[in-house]
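This entry is listed as follows:

___
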Amino acid sequence: MKKTYYTLLLAGSSVAIGTMLFLANSINSRAEERKEINTSPVVKETGVESKNEAWQKYYPREYDSWKKTKSSDKIDDQIKKNPQIAVLWAGYAFSKDYNAPRGHFYAIQDVTNTLRTGAPVDAMTGPLPSACWSCKSPDVPRMMEKVGELEFFTGKWAKWGHEIVNPIGCGDCHDSKTANLTLTRPYLKKGLEASGVKLADTTHQDMRSLVCAQCHSEYYFKKTDWEDPKVTDPAKVKKTAMVVTFPWSNGLSVEEMEKYYDDIKFSDWTHQISKTPMLKAQHPDYEVFTKGIHARRGLACADCHMPYQQEGAVKYSNHQIQSPLNDVANTCLTCHQETEAEFKEVVKIKLEKKEQLAKFAMDNIAKAHLEAGEAWRLGATEDEMKDLQQDIRHAQWKWDMAVAGHGNFFHAPDETLRLLAVANEQGQTARIKLVKVLAKHGAVDYMAPDFSTKEAAQALAGVDMAKLIAEKETFKATLVQEWAKQAVANGTLDIKSREGMSSNTSYGK
């Protein structure tokens, strides 16, 4: 009996010792793996490392997952889907070309390809300012450090075509020396401070949203006169920069930003048809997110768009930034208690209702622009039009703020629906006022023309697509090629990093 007992004890001890040795070996292996990955390497001692591939050897998992953003290459033509917006943006670049965003891998290509940036023939031509690069590349903070923020924002978009060549990536959000999350855009820091935020008090969880807010926020270009101390020619010392600025000094709500713009009498453009001084929302994901249930529950952008992954002993953040619906199990369903099929069905039903309300608002506001255009044609006065133009301005601003952030309905569903409802109501108010103005000028039965197709809507907006496309193709075949050659020669671009990049556009054959 004793022999059996000791035999079992010895066997059990052997198993325990073997298990401990295995665990010790496993722990040591994992420790070595963690040491290999988490040494916080210096990717670049000073400045910004803007080439994403330079980060790969230190953060291979993050880099490989980021590279997968190239799979999001579909062009979703929003004007074809909702032709009303060509009328809503008549006289503005967005009436020419407007697509849903693709993956970060395509940021440089998409801003180069879009008809909105025109077809410059050199560094001093083209319709847009240099600020239109601001959200597209880690080369932006690199150049701001090199030449200064004001110089960067001075001049035309084509001025930096040979420098801004690497798409949104590592150096946009991470310090190149420590790899810590950092704010690389000074204009976000200024916007936060203007809104009352103390930067020293921001937490790591805050930063997991704020690095996104650098680009996914509403902004305008503030005309800023300055003197360049490096210029010796007195005639060229004085310059004007179009500085990216966040309208947050009153707060981050849509109405608070609206008041900010109204108080300074700012407009992005004057509508070509209704002559209304208009506002164009950019990509206000952050502002709307702060008003929603997810922010109130303490979530950050990265919680849903960059879920953690486990690979062996290593836990890392998935940098394939995309819709959480593409990875529901690791995003939405970590909180929502449904099956994947049930969750997606609920989302589908809710989105259909949101899209219906958005269509009502777009139709009413587009008709208001066209009816206002007819009123002007018939001789309406500024006094007759002033109040209803303000209704149009505010209605379109709220509609745009609801939809320009493509994820807003997920970020803050209640706020998005509220904005669309108010936009629709204000659009209707403008149209009721227009009935009286039109009747006064003899157009009792005026009906807005058809804008049910992209072609019809762009014709009303005066968009000559054939001319724009021909000019753009010439630009892509000439100046864009020169930009790439210069960047490769300067060492700022590894041309291999663009392998696998599809050249999809909304106007391609």
In short: The longest strand covers residues 220-227. DSSP finds 21 helices and six strands in the chain. Strands lie at 220-227, 238-245, 269-270, 277-278, 308-311, 314-317.
